[in-house]
């Protein structure tokens, strides 16, 4: 095994960082024994293999890149908009900075208590959903790395961040007491953007006191229930250079959620499959029920126009009443709302007078049917709504094909159910609970790994077990947990 900081030396079989020498073994894993790796560095490596006849196989050069590696390498400050956990609107953050020279490479490292979307010059960075993954936030917090070289421009640039609650600030009330989690706080983030110019010089853009913040049009977001959006509160161009942010507020400085900020080394959640509507039933001018034709975990996207102030409710469910309306009675049983402002699995949209395209950013649901009701008449068709199957984007590794269509269908249904419950950790269901029940999760591991390359999900979940284990060895029933389930 050859490891170097440049590909040329590896190509001629010189390992400047490590040369393992020829190892007479059939072992599939060899421990690295080279020099300590530096942070923020790209390494090239190559494996040379000989067969039993002593013939060397043609090797290929690969590479990897290191990230923060240590807490002390962070330069940014943890910031938020305020400290009040009861504030409902999701906050925007923005900063303008300059890149005066041609950029060779740039990496953004962002750690978050809660959920986020990162933007550069008006465009979302990456295609992940619900980042970072759910952990025991006061013991381990994850950061995500992005290559943002192509999104930077010479001159002025704007970076924007939108924060969501996720499991960090659980404002909905359920029987598992996540609203009383010991880590609960208003969402917060820390950002380091490391820029290398063509001339070899470097620059650093960080989260600090220079940023500004404002409320977004997402007026409520709950990972457990739904998302509410008011198009009248949109601020077009909020993440662009020329946006006027004079009315925006200063930020609030915060402490890190934990002293253990680690890289999210696992497959992200994505919108993996787009699912068109199979059938649509119109009850009247204000009530429609869309049927995707299959059960999924994920979100719906609606495109709609109507008068300003029109309120639209999208109720997501898995079964129907006899009259064809959506029935939530089988999945809202553990929700304990204080009032009617946070209905279960029901997105609420307020129109602003123009066309609206809405898809939740910080929530997912388990559903097949979407009941759309409106305070004013709407004209909708099958193309107005689309479903998106969301899950940890693990690649298939196994396949079953038989002469029996029923067996094949059962295998497909098993995988559909498995993926619907893979959201950075294995869950029991994507609607009623969204909990990482240890019995349920371990029961399905073998099935999952025979079919999908999901090992990194379980590596992360086992680290969650370590975080949750008490000094006396006791583990809770659900992992992660906000304190419920220790018996």
Structural key phrases:
single chain, 487 residues, mainly beta, Jelly Rolls, 4 domains
Please provide a written account of the structure.
The longest helix has 16 residues, at 405-420. Strands 15, 16, 20, 21, 22, 23, 26, 27, 28 and 29 form a ten-stranded mixed sheet that branches. Strands 9-8-11-6-14-17 form a six-stranded antiparallel sheet, with no helix packed on it. The two termini are 49 Å apart. It has 487 residues and is mainly beta. 10% of the residues lie in helices and 34% in strands. The mean pLDDT is 97.
- CATH fold field value of the largest domain: Jelly Rolls
Q: How would you characterize the largest beta sheet?
A: 10 strands, mixed
Q: Proportion of β residues? A: 25-35%
Using the alpha-carbon principal axes, give the shape.
globular
User: What do we call the CATH homologous superfamily of the largest domain?
Assistant: Galactose-binding domain-like
Low-confidence stretches: none
End-to-end C-alpha gap = 49 Å
Alpha carbon gyration radius: 25 Å
Helix- and strand-based class? mainly beta
Please state the second-level CATH architecture of the largest domain: Sandwich
Helix percentage: under 10%
Query: What value does the average pLDDT take?
Result: 97
CATH C-level class of the largest domain is Mainly Beta
What is shown here, in short?
The protein is mostly beta strands and 487 residues long. It contains five helices and 29 strands. The chain has four domains: 1-66, no CATH class; 71-266, Jelly Rolls (Sandwich); 274-391, Jelly Rolls; 394-487, no CATH class.
